[in-house]
Backbone:
């Protein structure tokens, strides 16, 4: 599966939007990828995540973790493809935490998975959480890296597609300056 075929899936599912968006990172953009629409089809979700999981074969991963909400389905499907345990982190008092009885063992090999990476901030928060619990992060994966290669981690970062979609700080956003109405489609408040 190459970048072109991944983007074709997003377009066919009506999941590649143009407008004025306030992303969960706090940045603004003219484009938004609604990965939840793509992952709502189990067959498509399984196929994409199998491809992403294949990039990490041989790593002996015991747990796949994704940040809530966007990373939950992708992490679960990658975990299934790797025959690993699939869990997710969620924000508690503004910080990523494990809840719902999820645990990580010291030394356990963990893969962090996101649906779409914009800045890498959420994935980095999960990396910090996992390391803080004594587990070992072996990599980060995302279906789409929309950072244009700017998201960097201390572990390998592998994706199915990489896009360079410009983002703006709110005070520098030309869409705001042009008075375009804004939508906040992400999962963070």
Residues:
């Amino acid at each position: 599966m190459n970048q072109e075929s991944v983007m074709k899936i997003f377009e066919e599912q009506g999941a590649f939007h143009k407008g004025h968006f306030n992303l969960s990172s706090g940045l603004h953009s003219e484009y938004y990828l609604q990965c939840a629409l793509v992952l709502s089809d189990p067959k498509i979700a399984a196929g994409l995540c199998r491809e992403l999981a294949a990039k990490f074969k041989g790593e002996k991963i015991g747990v796949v973790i994704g940040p809530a909400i966007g990373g939950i389905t992708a992490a679960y499907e990658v975990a299934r493809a790797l025959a690993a345990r699939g869990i997710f982190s969620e924000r508690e008092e503004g910080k990523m935490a494990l809840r719902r009885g999820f645990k990580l063992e010291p030394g356990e090999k963990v893969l962090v998975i996101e649906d779409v990476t914009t800045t890498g901030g959420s994935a980095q928060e999960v990396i910090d959480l996992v390391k803080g619990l004594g587990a070992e992060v072996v990599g980060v994966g995302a279906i789409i890296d929309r950072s244009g290669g700017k998201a960097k981690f201390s572990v390998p970062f592998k994706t199915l597609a990489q896009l360079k979609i410009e983002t703006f700080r709110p005070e520098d956003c030309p869409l705001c300056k042009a008075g375009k109405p804004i939508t906040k489609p992400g999962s963070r408040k």
